[in-house]
Design a protein that fits this description.
Elements: H1 10-27, H2 34-41, H3 45-51, H4 55-70, H5 80-94, H6 97-112, H7 114-142, H8 151-167, H9 174-188
Domain HTH tetR-type: 10-70
DNA-binding region: 33-52
GO molecular function, one term: transcription cis-regulatory region binding
């Protein structure tokens, strides 16, 4: 959301996001108020209300700031399928602990507040999908990923499994990652043709 009035101070903005995330870790989104953020960050309430329309909006930005630092989408391999497996494990690990609990609270807020839902789709879901789809398209093009499923279907299927765990507060531990992510990634892998029999 573009601020109205005086330009946003980078230092004040960073302090507000830090205070918001600390409060989310300590109390969760249900108990977060802009008054508490103002008190913790030292910013005025008028500044907060000018820059963010709701607690869901400021919680989204503070959480995204942390997620973007915790999850790397920088490619580490030329193998698209292996890279997608690494990405899924990175996301699953980021969902452990406070980040996952906070994101689950934001998802709950999305069911109540249409503005938070809009921001969740626009600020988290859409940009992440836009970053990952070229990787999946590359895998389809080079033959490592099945061509009979679309990148959007792959994303719905794999990230749906992660969000299922998140909403039910089931840990995405190493055993879960090795099992479920392994099955999902193997399921989108292109079949390997058997070697041709030797000539008679």
């Amino acid at each position: 959301m573009a601020p109205v009035g005086r330009p946003r101070s980078d230092a004040s903005h960073a302090a507000i996001l830090k205070a918001t995330y600390e409060l989310l870790q300590e109390e969760g989104l249900a108990r977060l108020t802009l008054d508490k953020v103002a008190s913790r960050s030292g910013a005025s309430r008028s500044t907060l209300y000018r820059w963010w329309p709701s607690r869901g909006a400021i919680a989204m930005e503070a959480t995204l700031d942390t997620i973007n630092r915790e999850m790397s989408l920088e490619p580490m391999s030329d193998n698209a399928l292996a890279e997608y497996r690494r990405l899924l494990k990175s996301v699953a690990k980021a969902m452990r602990g406070s980040t996952g609990r906070i994101l689950a609270g934001i998802l709950a807020e999305c069911q109540r507040d249409p503005e938070t839902l809009r921001l969740f789709r626009e600020k988290l879901v859409a940009p992440r999908r836009a970053e990952v789809i070229p990787l999946l398209e590359r895998g389809i093009a080079d033959g490592s990923i099945r061509a009979d499923v679309t990148p959007h279907t792959i994303l719905d299927m794999t990230f749906g499994a992660i969000f299922h765990q998140l909403l039910l507060h089931i840990p995405t531990d190493d055993a879960w990652m090795d099992g479920v992510i392994g099955i999902l990634v193997n399921g989108i892998a292109a079949p390997v043709s058997p070697p041709s029999p030797p000539a008679a």
